[in-house]
Structure formats: structure tokens, C-alpha cells
Design a protein that fits this description.
The structure is a homodimer.
Chain A (H helix, E strand, L loop, with lengths): L2 H8 L5 E5 L4 H13 L5 E4 L8 H6 L4 H5 L2 E3 L2 H4 L5 E5 L10 E3 H7 L7 E5 L8 H6 L2 E4 L11 H16 L16 H18 L8 H13 L5 H16 L1
Parallel strand pairs in A: 1-2, 1-6, 2-3, 4-6, 4-7, 5-7
Helix pairs in contact in A: 2-8, 6-8, 9-11
Chain lengths: ~250, ~250
């Protein structure tokens, strides 16, 4: 793990994750792992059913110790959200109340700038948020799900919100996998094709003169799409030499 | 659960989820729950460490019985992917090979139209995919994560891919890119590689037994990147036949 990287992301003030009456320590740990995967660290737990600190939570977090050990525990939701300026409720059930509903992606995109603290409320695994808790929030967060099987697990719901937050706010630079190998030059590729063509000619593959340009074009096309490296071009030339020597 | 709704989504042909040597039944079940939350049902398991059928998987799926009970189990990855036309590898580790890397969201947006089968490979919880398994895929799928804590749990990784698939394809509108040529199936590609390997063996190209796996992996990688069509696979097999007949 790499402290400075995490702090860098942290400084961008991701939302607090507030779990109300979570039933299982494993789920808290699994949620914490997902949070830290996407740079969130502010975990708040209201009346956990099991003891706290909780060894199962720590194990399930798979190394996200700083999130578990730094989690704050509260007796009341009101205390857990006291410092927050924007509060979202993660819930799929329809509520008998009027409240704006926003998609997760949209909400994370709109999430206020650093320093303005936001939080997302999650209810117990079995029952979800109570109406009283939903009423505390400004906005309901909704995730588009399969209407035939719509109940997200608690850690999965936390994960998706962390993921969407990070996909908007977390990336400072391009994280693509670096390639330290060079693609072959055009000239190396042309030599490969010429070599292949002459061996195919010798083997009788190109005996139909009308088909020949098209056949060679198709082969060039197919191999050309692969962005072959120098080494791969050499390997393929070795293959051609070996096969045609037989 | 609501059958017709699921079938409606299903009919849009989401990717197969292929778990290679998953260690824990719970993780398979938890992954299945996330799949069905986002309308995916095609689960394939290669050499699960625990017995199959697996009661823990069924319990952890929390009602996604149709995914668990419908899962197909294989001894070899090659059999599990034989019918697929586009294969992605979910991996975060750097690899010493050239392969296109695509973000999950981008990949799901590009995922081919209904009827063109795609799949995503996932490695074991502890170690992830082997280089040999990554070499089977056309494209590496990457999820942008906190570089200081980048290891996603297996069910979380499956969830994110299911979520991104659904966020593009689960809703009614159609943003997909149409393809008018079909890429070859994995089974056709595997036959091409087997054919090439046997001719190279006959020609003495593979006489160094220590180098052989690596040489073949490099060739598979190079040719695999080209997204060869059925016709191109036939043409290349003709080339191999012609050259080695000489």
C-alpha cells in the first residue's frame, strides 16, 4: 500500500459512507475494501449489530485497515451526519415521500467541490433504510438494476457508489498499462509480407493469378491489424522459414 | 423474481462471466448475485477449488439460483470459451505482452450487437489470471482504481463489469456499434493454433522443449490480437497447409 497516493485522492474529499445498523461484520469489511479501492476512507457506522471493533470486519477488508480502524461509531444517525452538507440516501424501494431522485453517476458528477462534505446513507442488509432515515437526506440515489432481481447487497451498493465517485473525481492521470515494447516498422512488416508471398508462390498457394492480389491483401489485412512487434515479426518469419523448409 | 423481465434483458446477450479456478463458493455466489442484479446470467466456472454444485455458492447468491444452477463447469479454459467471439481478460497486473487495454465502460459501450457472444475471464482470488489465460483474450479490461490499494475482490470485479454492461445495454436504447463481419469463434482460433503448433513441431521449429510454451504463447498473442474473422482463419490455415506441404 502506498500512503501518499491515498492521501492525494483523499484530499479531494470523497463522500462519507454511513452504514446504519449493519448486521454483519464481514459486510462492513467488504464495503471498506471497495471504498478504499476507489479512494474513499470516511466510514461511519451507526449501531452495528455486532461488537465493534470487529475482527471479521478487519479480515474481510483484506488490507483496508485504515478504513476499518478509522471508522467512527455512533448511537444515532443524526450525530453521524452532523458535519455533512449534502446527504444522499441509497435506496431502491419506492417511498411515500417527495424527494429528488438522482442516478449514481449523475450524482457523483455533481458532487460538490473539495471541502464541501457529502455523505451517503445505507440501511441494514435485510430491510434497507427506514423512512425516517431517508427523510434526513436531500436526495435519493438510485442505481439502474434488473427489475426482476433488484436487491443489491450492502457491500455491492457501497462499491458502486465508490466506483462512480472515483471515475469522476479520482483520476488525475492516465492509468493505462504501459507498453515498453515497440511495434515493428512498416519496412519490417513489408519484408514479412514479401517473404510470406514468395514462399506461398513457391508452394503453389498463389497459382491462380486473378485471386492472388486479393489473397495477399486479405493476409496483409489480417496480420496488419495485430500491431506486431519487431520480435513477433521475427518469430513469424522464423515460422515461415521453418514451415517451408520441410 | 420476475422471469419475463430477466429474459427480456437476457435476449440482449450480455457477456459470459468465466471464473477460472475460483477458490471460494461464497465468492461465486456473491458474483452471481451481482451478475443477475445487472441482467447477466451466463456463468462458467473452470476447475472450481471446492465441490460443485456448491451449497455456499447458492446461499451467497441470495436468490440468484438460476445463475448458480445454470452455471457450466469446465476442466479447461479452452472449452469454456470455445463458442465466444470476443474475449476480454479482467486483470490489473502489468503483462509482458502487447494487447489492447480498454476501460470497462468503453468496452461495454463497444460490445457487439446481440447474438455476437462475448466473455470476460477472471482469475483466482489470490493470484489473478495467468499469462497463458491472458494470452487467450483479445483485450485486457481495466478498471481505474486507487493505485495505493488496487486489488479488487473477485465478486466486486464481476459486479463492476455487470453494472457497466447494464448501464449501456440494460436500458432500452441502443448505443452499440454494429459489426457486419463476425470474428471467428475461440474454437476456430484454437484449431488454428493447434494446427500451427503441430506443423511447427513437424518442421523442427519447436525442438527446444523449454522455449516451446513461451514461443507458442507469443505466437498466439500476436495472431490473437488481430480479431481474425472466420474467413481469415481459413486463409491462414490454407497458408500453413500450403507452406508445410512443400
Amino acid at each position: 500500500m502506498n500512503g501518499p497516493e491515498i492521501s492525494r485522492i483523499n484530499a479531494k474529499a470523497g463522500p462519507a459512507i454511513i452504514l446504519i445498523e449493519p448486521q454483519l461484520g464481514e459486510n462492513i469489511g467488504f464495503a471498506a475494501r471497495g471504498m478504499l479501492n476507489f479512494g474513499l476512507t470516511d466510514l461511519r457506522v451507526v449501531r452495528p449489530r455486532e461488537d465493534w471493533p470487529n475482527a471479521k470486519a478487519l479480515t474481510a477488508s483484506a488490507g483496508a485497515d485504515e478504513v476499518i480502524n478509522g471508522a467512527k461509531v455512533y448511537d444515532h444517525t443524526s450525530a453521524a451526519i452532523a458535519d455533512l452538507r449534502h446527504l444522499y440516501a441509497a435506496t431502491a424501494r419506492k417511498r411515500d415521500m417527495i424527494k429528488p431522485v438522482t442516478g449514481v453517476r449523475e450524482a457523483m458528477r455533481k458532487m460538490a467541490s473539495p471541502g464541501t462534505s457529502s455523505g451517503v446513507l445505507f440501511g441494514p442488509e435485510r430491510s434497507g433504510l427506514t423512512n425516517d432515515d431517508v427523510a434526513l437526506a436531500d436526495t435519493i440515489l438510485s442505481v439502474p438494476v434488473n427489475p426482476g432481481f433488484s436487491s443489491l447487497s450492502l457491500p455491492h451498493a457501497v462499491l458502486l457508489i465508490s466506483y462512480e465517485w472515483f471515475s469522476v473525481h479520482g483520476q488525475s492521470r492516465d492509468e493505462r498499462i504501459q507498453l515498453d515494447v515497440q511495434p515493428a516498422t512498416r519496412s519490417q512488416l513489408l519484408k514479412l509480407f514479401t517473404h510470406l508471398e514468395s514462399e506461398l508462390e513457391a508452394s503453389g498457394f498463389l497459382r491462380n493469378p486473378e485471386m492472388r492480389p486479393r489473397m495477399m491483401r486479405n493476409l496483409r489485412n489480417a496480420l496488419g491489424r495485430a500491431s506486431l512487434t519487431e520480435k513477433e515479426v521475427s518469430a513469424l518469419r522464423g515460422v515461415i522459414r521453418s514451415l517451408s523448409r520441410k
